[in-house]
Amino acid sequence: MFKFCDKCNTKIGFRQKFKLWNKSTYEGYTCENCGTKYKPTKLSMLLDFMVIWLTFVFVFMSELNLKIGFFLCFILLVTVNLVTPAIVVRYKAVE
């Protein structure tokens, strides 16, 4: 279980976390129980950009991209769509 809201201590499961954060990662979210709005922190957004940028560099600047290009593109898609929104991006309440 993951903590969803700091004020009302609502908790959600792992699958709901992926659905919610992948849908609106950069806009933030609102707690349905108490209405608290959450936005991503600037540091986590910078870290998110760096992870995506490094993944692109590994995919497109590799000298072996003809041999393992499809595998690296798959890693890029997984990183950008699943790993980064769920692990890297952190939220804080907006008052």
TrEMBL record:
The regions listed as transmembrane in this protein's record are 45-62, 68-89
By what name is this protein known?
Cxxc_20_cxxc protein
In terms of superkingdom, the source organism counts as: Bacteria
Record's keyword annotation contains Transmembrane: yes
Keywords, in A-Z order: Membrane, Transmembrane, Transmembrane helix
